[in-house]
Amino acid sequence: xxxxxxxxxxxxxxxxxxxxxxxxxxxxxxxxxxxxxxxxxxxxxxxxxxxxxxxxxxxxxxxxxxxxxxxxxxxxxxxxxxxxxxxxxxxxxxxxxxxxxxxxxxxxxxxxxxxxxxxxxxxxxxxxxxxxxxxxxxxxxxxxxxxxxxxxxxxxxxxxxxxxxxxxxxxxxxxxxxxxxxxxxxxxxxxxxxxxxxxxxxxxxxxxxxxxxxxxxxxxxxxxxxxxxxxxxxxxxxxxxxxxxxxxxxxxxxxxxxxxxxxxxxxxxxxxxxxxxxxxxxxxxxxxxxxxxxxxxxxxxxxxxxxxx
Length: 309
Description:
11 strands, globular
């Protein structure tokens, strides 16, 4: 139901397929625990709530996504689900309930979902621009940077790069714009990276990674990751793009994204849409995306409500 609602609300919906979601909820993970709530009437599903309980980083927060079947909206279904999610969050010792509205207008960010959140005491804390590009692209031109070597890998980070990749993942968590969210950076470890890689494999996901190595020092300077799943081959995702602080200002973002795009679409089954989200203040990355042909289609907004006391 969650993706059905997204598909109804968005021209370019994104999200997990059923097989991915099943693995995500059924297994134990090092970084997050996921479960859900459903409101039913006999055999009819009225609505659902998906809950992500963070075990690293934002451990005071539970993320909640609500989805209500169109014919049951404005009947209190979402409110009942939210109330139950809040009760469970309090029982678990969480102090913040957060939610992400995916379907905001690309300029204003407003939607029926934002009106619902505001009316129930949530405060908007952050916004991200949702951009898409339709693949395949035929005019990709590599833009190498002198002094850097490009390397690529698929599902698992090579052991020789793992420690440095852990550093970059932590840097990404520390540096990504989060607005006014009650957000804590994740301190990645080798074990956490491997756990997340194994989860993607178990979900059937494929991942393409391209990184730039500073040839003089051997330092991993930048990386980007993209991927998807055979279950929904028409929906691909840009996961991360990050440049180490000491190597910024050298156009390494586009230097890694272009060859990664080429590898991704070479392995794709056919036409597809690649999704990415960036905070408006991350103007350099949005500019890189625009050069590659991305266009804005929606605004994703983050909302929080304190449940202390």
